[in-house]
Amino acid sequence: MHMTTKIPAAPPVLAPLQPEYPQRRNSRLSRVLRAIGAALASISAAIMMSGCVSSAGIVSVAKPLTPEAAGLTSSATTQAPAPSAHWWHGLGAPALDDLVQRALAESPSLGLAQARLSRAQAVVAGANAAEGLQVGGSLDATRQRFSANSIYPPPLGGSIRTLATAQASASWEFDFFGRNRAAIGAAVGAERAAQAEIAAARVLLAANVTQTYLRIGQLFAQREVAARALQQRQDLLVLIRQRVQAGLDTAVEARQGEGALPDARTQIEQLDEQIMLARHALAVLTAQAPHALDTLVVTLADVRRMDLPAVLPADLLGRRADIEAARWRVEAATQDTAVARAQFYPNINLNAFVGLSSIGLGELLKADSRQIGFGPAVHLPIFDAGRLRANLRVRNADLDLAVESYNTVVRDGVRDVVDQLGSLQSLARQQHEQSAAQAAAESAYDLISQRYKAGLATYLAVLYAESQLLNQRRLAADLTARVFDRQVALVRALGGGYSGGPDVIADTGVQTAQP
């Protein structure tokens, strides 16, 4: 239940029909002053009674994650540069630059995030409007029969008259306890979070386009290896047939050589299928028809590796848009809690009106029909069956959810960066070992081929050496593609060039090997 203390500052609309006496006009100011005094007394009494409904004992329990709890330290002082906002230019692929720009400009996947931002901006505008002066107007005319057995004396009682009113009203809420300010803060927090979510969606989209583009390059590199294997086997089959004609090999070797060709062609066809599907996926990511990129060819040898700093301080995690969005969600939830807590205190408004009121349209525009009034109004919760406390508990639970969500995003961000750094370091070691293995496989294949031509080795030995060589070539192409992919993933994990807000993670030195 709410108690409302409102001081009327003017006579009711249906004022008595007798003329106003001069002494009443002279005492109008004193009546207004008495009304304001009584209102202030009521406000004071209301504030004193505000303890009837208490918010005591309802608090948030979740705590934001500290850098130490996330596994970070603040020992490093080196400030590493953040990734560029157009980091994909570092790969040196003009075709990729065009595809990413097209995706960011036209992709429908950003529409949902943009709609959320528009809604948040509208909520901010509404919250700001609540703090200002509210002015309204009304004009009405009602044809009414007045009861002869009620409070209306003759000739009004029992007659049918037109009740007319033209009035302008204004109100102003005194935000003594910060409810409106907290509501604005909550709306601004939600708006900032929506802006960060758009940035996060853009970073993710650019990363997906880049990784799909590099995937096509990886498939073309594998196809090149498969085509070389097919040509190699065709050349070897020619040699086998020559040896069969010379009586140095049998039909068994000839059939083995012929059977190796369909297998090589099947591998090429499988790779062509994967290239087709990757092209379709990239076309859809860039808001194009599925067949728009059917002629796209990507050569990994033409792609440059991005320059990454040798030391990556964890302050770069604060530039991740998803962490920034989660931080603003916590801010919005904190302000929502402040709004819920402010509802336990009195709500004080100053109301005023001015206008004309009469019985009969012909009397409306006369000077005696004017009415004017102003005065404060106090609304105070006394007994509400626990509604306000339940609402505050809900807001505190929402705050706990926002804080825990923030903690989860931070932990995932730290793990993401550490994973990508670890992968790049491992890939550097793998490439070093694979280079040595491929050099040995190339040498072994050359030697066994020469021995086969000289009749000193069997065809099975040639096939085994060829298999080892082709595996190494495929592995080299895959490792190169994985390095590019992990570099893109690391840039995305570090925010992808986002710089929309302050750092939220303390610095830490993270060493990274450059493969």
Task: Give a verbal description of the structure.
- 55% of the residues lie in helices and 11% in strands.
- The chain is of the alpha+beta class and 515 residues long.
- The chain is elongated.
- The protein starts with a strand and ends in a 22-residue tail after the last helix.
- 31% of the residues are buried.
> Helicity range of the residues?
55-70%
Widest sheet: strand ordering: 1-5-4-3-2
Q: How does the helix and strand content classify structurally?
A: alpha+beta
Oligomer: single chain
**Low-pLDDT segments, ≥5 res:** 1-26, 502-515
SSE pattern: EHHHHEEHHHEEHH
Task: Describe this structure in a few short sentences.
The protein is of the alpha+beta class. It has 9 helices and 5 strands; from the N terminus they run βααααββαααββαα. 31% of the residues are buried.
